[in-house]
Design brief:
The chain is of the alpha/beta class and 370 residues long. It folds into 2 domains: 1-109 and 264-370, Isopropylmalate Dehydrogenase, CATH 3.40.718.10; 121-261, Isopropylmalate Dehydrogenase (3-Layer(aba) Sandwich). The protein is 41% helix and 24% strand. It has 12 helices and 14 strands. Helix 1 links the parallel strand 1 and strand 2. Helix 1 (16-34) packs across helix 10 and helix 10 runs antiparallel to helix 11 (321-336). Bound molecules: nicotinamide-adenine-dinucleotide (NAD). Nicotinamide-adenine-dinucleotide binds next to helix 4.
Length: 370
Amino acid sequence: MNQVGNLLLLPGDGIGPEVMGEVQRVVGWFRDRQGLGFECETDLVGGSAYDAHGTPLADSTLALAKAADAVVFGAVGGPAYDQLEFRLKPEQGLLKLRKELELFANLRPAMVFPALAEASSLKKELVEGLDILILRELTGGVYFGEPRGIEELPDGTRRAVDTQVYTTAEIRRIASVGFELSRKRQGRVTSVEKANVMHTGVLWRQEVTKLHQEQFPDVKLEHMYADNCAMQLVRRPKQFDVIVTDNLFGDLLSDAAAMLTGSLGMLPSASLGAPDQAGRRKALYEPVHGSAPDIAGQGKANPLAMLLSFAMMLRYSFDLGAEADRVEKAIGAVLDKGYRTADIMQPGMREISTTAMGQAVLDELDASLG
Ligand code: NAD
């Protein structure tokens, strides 16, 4: 058995435990069929942690997260916790994890499996086979810059200020992640800002260009203004490989790109921190969707976003690109065969449950071994 690394599994609330159950089965498959061992620890987060410990993230859980090679996160939240004071809300568990692990790079892939191309709001030929990655800077920029606030003016009206601020170090560290990721993909990076009207955009462009020349000349770099990028994403999305951008533009562009794929139940994500001495980055992998209380406990949840997040973990935390491809191909094959959970159901297809979908993926993984 090849011990690959240790994982902290945080299923969370609502459908979180249901979709995490399918990850555990895939972990078992890699152990039994490929000799790849992941040591897994499971703990509480969000509402379930609040119920047990009176806090959405216990210190002991945070310590496990810091010690793990990767955190795999389900989803948190639910109506039972809506009345809690802000600091105790389930979502605070996730925010605290991101902050404490210093996860500054948010990876949001937009992939369209051929079988689901009809579900996109764009024409099938524009999105079929789409595979792009939006890399968003997550801890800086206008959401955090000082000064910020609303002030009363002498004439009784008010004035609001947010500050967009980026330093050389912040730009270089997110751009490095973009260049590194592109090397595991098609080797192309589009750096997005508004250097035509913003000073942060000018600095962003200069620093990315410099870093590219110094360390990543093998990667093809292109610069694009954010407004043009928004247009290009809906006009010809397949032109992109990795898009690297700031917190605000990344927030908007990643949601726009998500809709190209059609379904929340299919969207994975990852958040990465700085590399440690061994070169390994702190990392958290989670589906984009929430805890879906409306369908929790009914076996209706689509586990594919969670399994695609697990595939991202294989690729980006453990450099197991071939194994990640294997999981993604198995998912594509299951969809090609017409299996669907309710959220992605289409006429003439076969609706199946969460566990049946997980089993179908395992069957395809078996089939992939020949
Ligand atoms: P949601 O993503 O949970 O659900 C939105 C809709 O999509 C629902 O109709 C749901 O049934 C459906 N859906 C979501 N994931 C699905 C899946 N895997 N399979 C099938 N259908 C799926 O968003 P919401 O309803 O706005 O929020 C519900 C709770 O989740 C709230 O408490 C919210 O705060 C929380 N939330 C948590 C996260 C997170 O943990 N990262 C993210 C978003 C929302």
